[in-house]
Specification:
Layout (H helix, E strand, L loop, with lengths): L8 E7 L4 E7 L2 E7 L4 E2 L2 H15 L6 H13 L1 H7 L18 E10 L2 E9 L13 H4 L5 E2 L21 E4 L2 E7 L3 H17 L11 E6 L5 E7 L3 E6 H4 L6 H20 L12 E4 L4 E3 L19 H16 L4 H4 L18
Parallel strand pairs: 3-5, 4-5, 7-10
Antiparallel strand pairs: 1-2, 2-3, 5-6, 8-9, 9-11, 10-11, 12-13, 13-14
Helix pairs in contact: 7-8
């Protein structure tokens, strides 16, 4: 018997000192559920299980199946509320990023009493109309890239009854194919846009500096970034170095890719730019077998760059050394030990307020 897909999407979580908040998306509505042992009554087993999961998240093991299963178990408790408060809305016309905007936000109160979970209350979140930081306004802090309204960006979709499940990646602006990446926080985009501005101003071609290129910035209220648009890259096969490299990869290709990645990192450093999240998932292989460095947002991935050198040239060089071994050494521990191809980031989508 085929299991029906869950009517929600776990988007991530934020952690506090002794609790975490799960962000759940349902038909364009966002539900934030706080999970805290303070709300567990006469439930020692539930508290112990919570602590096990909380330790996994704090140890950056939040991509494990145990964490995601736990989050889904909590979300399932609120299914009746999801159905009541977040009904589906069919869409038949052209779909844009504006149509995918958050329709509303709710705060969920989760409780466990005598080992039994309860959806205690779900209340609507009302955002205060506070002034937005001018230093985050993309209209004033940069002039290199065009500013676009979400309604200007077309999103392909196939199912008009569940278009909110669409995860926009390839989008179109006036018929031009682009890659879309939503901003978890408008602040996060400021540094990344500055990096791409330096690349643009340098005048270096993609042959001279093999990195992704920014096309424009999608903004919301107050000019705060909601997402970034990149030039579309046609990739080979599975797309990333992580998925393409194998024992049968010719030596000539390995040498080419290693050289291109080295040159890209050196070129970035010359421009005063740190790559940050050095890993093979952040290297695309295009249809001409070129290795292209992507994702200049920053951050680190466990096993590739030590936390104490995160965001530094030293960190990039550390990751680069491991990357070269990953390319040439078929017995590389990082090659053999790969599990999930993508880390789940422990961040919540704060752009909902924009």
């Amino acid at each position: 018997m085929t299991e029906l897909p869950v009517p929600y999407k776990i988007q991530g979580w934020d952690t506090g000192d002794d609790h975490f908040d799960i962000s759940i998306c349902v038909n364009g509505f966002r539900f934030t559920t706080t999970v805290s042992p303070d709300c567990f009554v006469d439930s020692p087993r539930a508290i112990e299980h919570f602590r096990e999961i909380f330790e996994l998240i704090k140890a950056d093991d939040d991509d494990s199946s145990e964490v995601w299963d736990y989050a889904e178990q909590i979300a399932d408790v609120f299914l009746p509320e999801f159905e009541r408060l977040a009904p589906p809305r069919p869409h038949k016309a052209m779909l844009t990023l504006a149509d995918l905007a958050v329709r509303g936000s709710f705060v969920c109160q989760y409780q466990v009493v005598e080992e039994k979970p309860f959806a205690v209350a779900v209340t609507e979140r009302v955002w205060e109309d506070t002034s937005l930081p001018a230093e985050w306004d993309m209209r004033s802090i940069q002039s290199v890239f065009p500013i676009l309204n979400p309604a200007d960006v077309e999103v392909p979709f196939s199912d008009e009854d569940s278009f909110y499940d669409t995860n926009p990646r390839q989008v179109f602006v006036k018929g031009r194919a682009l890659f879309y990446k939503p901003c978890w926080s408008p602040y996060d985009a400021v540094d990344e846009v500055a990096k791409y501005s330096r690349i643009h101003t340098s005048g270096l071609s993609t042959q001279q500096l093999s990195t992704s290129r920014l096309f424009g910035v999608v903004t919301g209220r107050g000019g705060l970034a909601k997402g970034l648009l990149y030039e579309w890259i046609e990739t080979r096969d599975a797309g990333t170095l992580a998925l393409i490299i194998g024992a049968d990869t010719p030596l000539t290709l390995r040498e080419k890719w290693a050289a291109q990645i080295r040159n890209a990192v050196t070129g970035l450093h010359t421009l005063g730019i740190v790559w940050g999240d050095v890993k093979p998932e952040n290297v695309l292989i295009d249809t001409n077998d070129n290795a292209i460095v992507i994702d200049l947002e920053g951050g680190t991935t466990r096993g590739w760059v030590d936390r104490d050198v995160s965001g530094t040239v030293e960190g990039d060089l550390q990751g680069l050394e491991k990357m070269v071994d990953f390319i040439f050494n078929d017995e590389s521990p990082l090659r053999l030990g790969r599990g999930h191809g993508e880390d789940h980031m422990n961040r919540s989508p704060r752009s909902e307020i924009l």
